[in-house]
Amino acid sequence: MNDAILSQLAQVLEERKQAAADSSYVAKLYGKGLDAILKKIGEEATETVMAAKDGDKEKIVYEVADLWFHSLVLLAQQNLHPQDVLKELERRFGLSGLAEKASRPS
What's 1's DSSP letter? Predict the structure, then answer.
């Protein structure tokens, strides 16, 4: 994914924080609070799993886009930026998954 689109989305999501709840889907979701955002992420994760189980590549892409979008909403709600996640992925790049997991504090 082009990280420019991530930055553009992050900017829009940040702007929606100040918008009236009835002005956009995201503003409404922010108005409902963290639990509503988390519920949407859970729903989208489940839909992604179901699409993968069905083997429908087009639907997998569609559902992953929804999952990523709602994850970006969560990041913005928590005053985080997609760049924070990209930095963490960059940090992990080249590390063995087993070594990375072993380095986590317990």
Answer: -
Check residue 102 and give its pLDDT.
77
Amino acid at 13: L
Q: Which token pair is 11?
A: 């900017």
What is the DSSP code string of 49-68?
A: HHHHHHT-HHHHHHHHHHHH
CA distance 78 to 95: 27
- Are the C-beta atoms of residues 72 and 82 closer than 8 Å to each other? yes
Q: Is residue 31 a contact partner of residue 23, using CB atoms and an 8 Å limit?
A: no
Average pLDDT, the chain: 93
Integer CA distances (angstroms), 46 to 33, 52, 58, 81, in order: 21, 10, 16, 24
3-state secondary structure of 19: coil
